[in-house]
């Protein structure tokens, strides 16, 4: 589809999804789904500009479904806390926000029937693509998609699936300065708060979540991770001021809390990756710390988005490179000293106290230190009866308990455990040529006992409800 230029927003972020023009209608609709924020949101600013251009009011609509794939009360509570703040921020800008129950695509189609034009943000997962395709099939007015949650649009970086970080890194860095630019807000010329469209109240988020037909067994964790853009920015300021100086030194040491914990906020679109990158770039920190962080945010995160975009079966064992499937197949019958099923893993009931601590951190807080995530996944591969079961169990647990689960990073990181975006290593039992991780490595590289103690304290805090 054609690219549509607009002020301040890079043309590479914007594309028309159909060939229709704007029509007579009551308002311009911004169907918000991925970019759940009121600031530094290219789709929102584009929609404001579109409304001003056509002298229309702007309606922001969000579809809330009970059956979002693998989502539970933990995810919904965090998301709705963020949407409550977003609604309040939009209200201050004179923009009407409405949340309606229903499949997101059906809510968008319903609201679009009285729209002169529709703007939507972009999602890379399978169901997100299908929702947008259904909207295009159902609506005969102009529909424009605006990318706001990839720091650099995937197709701008590369036109193919990249083999590894080393292949995508130069392509990413080539566009870095071009896309790490600020985005100003545009004033809406026609206040839209008087649009008569009904929706659900966000005044009582816990009550709203309690009334939904969802999995309530995984409890919300607001004591560890309150949702919302304001909280994301507060954490970011604290990270830059208090922790960033030792980021590169401590980022692989789980006994320290020297990570920014931005991934849940990025996953739900409560914080712009561009705004985050600019804050890090302009922090005044040591250049090595800055480059180390931007490597993770731009290169590694971009690699996962590239993986999901170009890989239809990103959530299946079949997505792995041929060499990885071959070596795992050759060692499928190797004897396992330990063999754990999903129930034992979920209960953190293994012989390995380090792994159990990582699983408890995930279950009780919705987060796990990044270095322990690698160890956690590798051990599931080692302890499962076959690699196919291991792959699925990794995804099941990842998506159930992590606030940032069900994300392009989730699928990219789980696949990495099994050889994606990696190279062949020295062959060994069970792993074959897949990279392994050992408990002795944890003991050598960090104070792993201090990590276990830290997790024990977090679990106690969670159980006390504080």
UniProtKB/TrEMBL annotation:
Domain Photolyase/cryptochrome alpha/beta: 26-154
EC id: 4.1.99.3
Reaction it catalyzes: cyclobutadipyrimidine (in DNA) = 2 pyrimidine residues (in DNA)
Domain of life where this protein originates: Bacteria
Listed cofactors: FAD; (6R)-5,10-methylene-5,6,7,8-tetrahydrofolate
SUPFAM superfamilies, A to Z: Cryptochrome/photolyase FAD-binding domain (SSF48173), Cryptochrome/photolyase, N-terminal domain (SSF52425)
A Pfam short name: DNA_photolyase
Alphabetical UniProt keywords: DNA damage, DNA repair, DNA-binding, FAD, Flavoprotein, Lyase
Native source species: Stratiformator vulcanicus
GO biological process: photoreactive repair
GO MF annotation, one: deoxyribodipyrimidine photo-lyase activity
Membership in a protein family: Belongs to the DNA photolyase class-2 family.
Protein's name in the database: Deoxyribodipyrimidine photo-lyase
């Amino acid at each position: 589809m054609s690219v549509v230029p607009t002020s301040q927003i890079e043309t590479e972020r914007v594309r028309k999804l159909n060939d229709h023009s704007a029509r007579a209608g009551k308002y311009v609709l911004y169907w918000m789904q991925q970019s759940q924020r009121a600031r530094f949101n290219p789709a929102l600013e584009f929609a404001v500009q579109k409304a001003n251009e056509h002298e229309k009011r702007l309606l922001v609509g969000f579809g809330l479904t009970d059956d979002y794939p693998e989502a539970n009360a933990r995810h919904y509570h965090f998301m709705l806390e963020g949407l409550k703040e977003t609604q309040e921020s939009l209200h201050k800008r004179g923009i009407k926000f409405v949340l309606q129950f229903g499949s997101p695509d059906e809510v968008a189609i319903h609201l679009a029937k009285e729209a002169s034009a529709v703007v939507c943000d972009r999602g890379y997962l399978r169901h997100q693509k299908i929702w947008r395709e259904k909207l295009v099939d159902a609506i005969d007015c102009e529909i424009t998609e605006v990318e706001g949650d990839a720091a650099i649009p995937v197709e701008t970086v590369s036109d193919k699936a990249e083999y590894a970080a080393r292949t995508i890194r130069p392509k990413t860095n080539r566009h870095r300065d071009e896309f790490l630019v600020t985005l100003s807000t545009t004033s809406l010329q026609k206040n839209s708060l008087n649009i008569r469209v009904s929706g659900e109240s966000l005044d009582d988020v816990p009550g709203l979540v309690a009334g939904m037909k969802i999995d309530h067994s995984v409890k919300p964790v607001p004591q560890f991770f309150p949702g919302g853009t304001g909280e994301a920015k507060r954490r970011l300021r604290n990270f830059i001021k208090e922790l960033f100086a030792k980021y590169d030194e401590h980022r692989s040491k789980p006994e320290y809390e020297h990570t920014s914990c931005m991934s849940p906020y990025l996953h739900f679109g409560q914080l712009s990756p561009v705004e985050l990158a600019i804050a890090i770039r302009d922090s005044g920190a040591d250049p090595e710390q800055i480059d180390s962080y931007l490597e993770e945010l731009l290169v590694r995160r971009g690699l996962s988005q590239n993986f999901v975009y170009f890989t239809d079966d990103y959530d299946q064992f079949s997505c792995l490179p041929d060499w990885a499937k071959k070596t795992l197949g050759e060692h499928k019958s190797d004897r396992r000293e330990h063999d754990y099923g999903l129930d034992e893993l979920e209960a953190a009931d293994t012989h390995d106290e380090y792994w159990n601590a990582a699983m408890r951190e995930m279950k009780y807080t919705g987060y796990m230190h990044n270095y322990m995530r690698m160890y956690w996944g590798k051990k599931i591969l080692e302890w499962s009866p076959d690699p196919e079961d291991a792959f699925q169990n990794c995804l099941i647990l990842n998506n159930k308990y992590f606030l940032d689960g069900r994300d392009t990073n989730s699928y990219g990181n789980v696949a990495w455990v099994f050889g994606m975006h990696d190279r062949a290593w020295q062959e060994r039992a069970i792993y074959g040529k897949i990279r392994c991780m050992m408990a002795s490595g944890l003991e050598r590289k960090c104070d792993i006992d201090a990590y276990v103690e830290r997790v024990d304290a977090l679990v106690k805090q969670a159980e006390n409800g504080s």
